[in-house]
């Protein structure tokens, strides 16, 4: 199945047939109708609990443009499944972000395209929570999304919106705290939106939690979380650039206490 999202992003959903995956993994994809030789890596955006596996593809070059057209996304009418092109899949590969489930509290940081694996992680956490909340060790997620603008990841904002709505229905809006930082904006551009800041939902993402401008003050974030969860082991997971990895690694060390009974931040990263 092919789903068209805003800003030239398509989602390919494929049936699982002997395909086993973990959260945060990726696959290589080939579409012979576009190129007989090219393989391209894509992060899986589905959760292991779903009966299909999916990737989101942004249309930014010749190959992705070819895939877009081969899937009939340039046509107005509905495409029958048998008209869709054959897709070859190799994988999945990559370290699983399974460790997320071994902590009570986690900080998840996705920067730019690095937000993609967290679609799989957040969906899987929610499936596990709905299915058997009492057995789920994970009790609190602090999620940070850093991007220049949200356009390329409109589909991800949609995912957050549906999670937000489901958590409110179950009276557990506190399970996930997220902060979206628009790094490509400065205060002068932001002031235009601050006018609407009192409105119930954010004007850019339509989410209840407000979008922030610029970059996070990591020292403050770590100190606040340490105060809220004294004496606990907190997993810090990053999918993003090397510079940010250095910053988060240093903050994890400097905000961990020497006393084994104190708070400890354990840093994990995945690179793209």
Automatic annotation (TrEMBL):
Domain FAD-binding FR-type, first and last residues per copy: 1-99
Catalytic activity as recorded in UniProt: NADPH + 2 O2 = 2 superoxide + NADP(+) + H(+)
Listed GO biological process terms: defense response; monoatomic ion transmembrane transport; superoxide anion generation
InterPro entries in alphabetical order: Cyt_b245_heavy_chain, FAD-bd_8, FAD-bd_FR_type, Fe_red_NAD-bd_6, FNR_nucleotide-bd, RBOH/FRE, Riboflavin_synthase-like_b-brl
Main location: membrane
Bilayer topology term: Multi-pass membrane protein
UniProt keywords, alphabetically: Cell membrane, Electron transport, FAD, Flavoprotein, Glycoprotein, Heme, Ion channel, Ion transport, Iron, Isopeptide bond, Membrane, Metal-binding, NADP, Oxidoreductase, Phosphoprotein, Transmembrane, Transmembrane helix, Transport, Ubl conjugation, Voltage-gated channel
Localization terms from the record: Cell membrane
Residue ranges of coiled coil: none
Cofactor: FAD
GO cellular component: monoatomic ion channel complex; NADPH oxidase complex
An example Gene Ontology molecular-function term: superoxide-generating NAD(P)H oxidase activity
Protein role: Catalytic subunit of the phagocyte NADPH oxidase complex that mediates the transfer of electrons from cytosolic NADPH to O2 to produce the superoxide anion (O2(-)). In the activated complex, electrons are first transferred from NADPH to flavin adenine dinucleotide (FAD) and subsequently transferred via two heme molecules to molecular oxygen, producing superoxide through an outer-sphere reaction.
Name of this chain's protein: NADPH oxidase 2
Protein's organism: Tyrannus savana
Gene: Cybb_1
């Amino acid at each position: 199945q092919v789903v068209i999202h805003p800003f030239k992003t398509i989602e390919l959903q494929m049936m699982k047939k002997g395909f086993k995956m973990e959260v945060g993994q990726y696959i290589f994809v080939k579409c012979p109708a576009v190129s007989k030789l090219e393989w391209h890596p894509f992060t899986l955006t589905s959760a292991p609990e779903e009966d299909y596996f999916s990737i989101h593809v942004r249309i930014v070059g010749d190959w992705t443009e070819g895939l877009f057209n081969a899937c009939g996304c340039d046509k107005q009418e509905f495409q029958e499944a048998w008209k869709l092109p054959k897709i070859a899949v190799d994988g999945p590969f990559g370290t699983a972000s399974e460790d997320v489930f071994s902590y009570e509290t986690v900080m998840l940081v996705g920067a730019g395209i690095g937000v993609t694996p967290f679609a799989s992680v957040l969906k899987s956490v929610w499936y596990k929570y709905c299915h058997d909340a009492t057995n789920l060790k994970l009790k609190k997620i602090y999620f940070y999304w850093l991007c220049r603008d949200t356009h390329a990841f409109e589909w991800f904002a949609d995912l957050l919106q549906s999670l937000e709505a489901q958590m409110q229905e179950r009276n557990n809006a506190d399970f996930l705290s997220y902060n979206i930082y628009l790094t490509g904006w400065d205060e002068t551009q932001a002031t235009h939106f601050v006018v609407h800041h009192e409105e119930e939902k954010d004007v850019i993402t339509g989410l209840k939690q407000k979008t922030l401008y610029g970059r996070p003050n990591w020292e403050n974030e770590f100190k606040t979380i340490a105060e809220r969860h004294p004496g606990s082991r907190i997993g810090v997971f990053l999918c993003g650039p090397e510079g940010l990895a250095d910053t988060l690694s240093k903050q994890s060390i400097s905000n961990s206490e020497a006393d084994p009974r104190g708070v400890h931040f354990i840093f994990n990263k995945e690179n793209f």
